[in-house]
Amino acid sequence: MIEIREMLRLWLEGRGLREVARLSGTDRKTVRRYVERAQSCGVDREGGAGQLTDELLTAVIAGVRRKRPNGKSQAWETIAAQSGQITAWLDQGLTLTKIHILLGRRGVVVSYRTLNRYARTELGFGKRRVTVRVADCEPGSEVQVDFGRLGLLTDAEGRGRVVKGLIFTAVYSRHMFVYPTHRETLGEVIAGFEAAWTFFGGVFAVVIPDNMKAIVDRANATEPRLNDSFREYAESRGFVVDPARIRSPQDKPRVERCVPYARSNFFAGEQFRDLDDCRERAARWCREVAGMRVHGTTRLHPAEVFATDEHPKLKPLPDTEFDIPAWAHPKVAPDRHVQLNRALYSVPGDLVGQRLTARVDTRTVKLYWRGELIKVHPVVEPGRRHTDPADLPAELTAYATRDLEALQRKASVHGPHIGAYAAAVLEHPLPWTKMRQVYRLLGLIRRHNAEAVDEACRRALEAEAVNVGLIDRMLTRGLTEAPPATTPQPGTASRFVRDTGDFAVRRSS
């Protein structure tokens, strides 16, 4: 009533509706409704402010505001009848504007402002989650990491390439480091971490990154799965990885505001020769500008706080370069080899068709089966293979490795003439092309007995006939035994013996 009395008093003083609305903080249409109702009740500008009695104001209010027995308007009651349906639509992700349209199709015609007020007060629509400031950790304990877009950098060919910043922010001191890069690969991320440890002069105990693919394979609120290579890197450097949850910037608030700050204060408006120049100037900007500013929360210089409180608490810098491994899950082929980086490596045991876990670095290849290391190979070039003869079956080792001496020894076991015949077969400019003939010769031993094959090889060697097919025919036709010796009877001539005179040469006179 006090507000309405003041509204009418200003009007009685001769002010216009627009000015009354501005001075009273009320909508101009609302002022017009109250003034028109007061005029219908007999209020006149000539009568002055004495006309505004409590009885008059009660009549004016009753004429403008409809009676609400329960304190709610009719539109409010109409919307309340659709509360269940509105809640279901909100759960489906529909916007309130779309819900207003759907209610109109159902014949529920209300203003959007009334619908919005009802959804906010009764259904909790648009309520923001209450957040609290988290206390800072101990000095040197945590560093938060985030990727952010900085801008475009023109390369040598005149093309603009996107530059992203891998940003590190120390939680306690707010000291930050920016590592510009073009890609978010594992190699670039680890290179950024190495540059950050060098910049800070030590390693933090805990790293809180976002769910970048180079670090997190599968995001989860309580049990995230880290990338195997990055987990191995974290173990080698002695820090723990605690990824933030998906779409939860409050898990790493110290670094969130550093992304737009680095973009606007460092990168914007600058000209860089190349990416190396950008990285060098980024490190200098972090030391001289970002590190020496007065932080808005701590009201201190981050670089000074870091040097005094945090740097002594960091773990020492690594003294060795990290060899980034690659993890894969190759399938064992029928030839008992797996393919990694287009090279082949042998696998021990009968694991054909199984999936192994392989770790590959610049020097070695390690193969695991169900968590157990089963083989270690040196790295070979693409297109080559590394086969350990012990990984292959004994009967196939000589063939797979083209071991001619082992093949000849295997033949000599069955007989000296068989071994000599195998050596004669392999005596060739390209001896491995004759290995199949030796295997055929060994197959004849399984079909016939070794003594028969040895005798056939002896007779073939005497005749200097080096042909395994001939040995096969001899064994098949039973020609391995020598024919009995026959002596001609005296006084009998052979059927085809000719007289010596038939060979005499006659000379013409």
TrEMBL record:
UniProt cross-references to InterPro entries, sorted A to Z: Integrase_cat-core, IstA-like_C, RNaseH-like_sf, RNaseH_sf
A family per Pfam: Mu-transpos_C_2
Highest taxon listed in the record's lineage: Bacteria
Gene3D superfamilies per UniProt: Ribonuclease H-like superfamily/Ribonuclease H
Residues annotated as domain Integrase catalytic: 135-310
Molecular function as annotated in GO: nucleic acid binding
Annotated transmembrane regions: none
GO BP, one annotated term: DNA integration
Similarity field: Belongs to the transposase IS21/IS408/IS1162 family.
Name of this chain's protein: Transposase
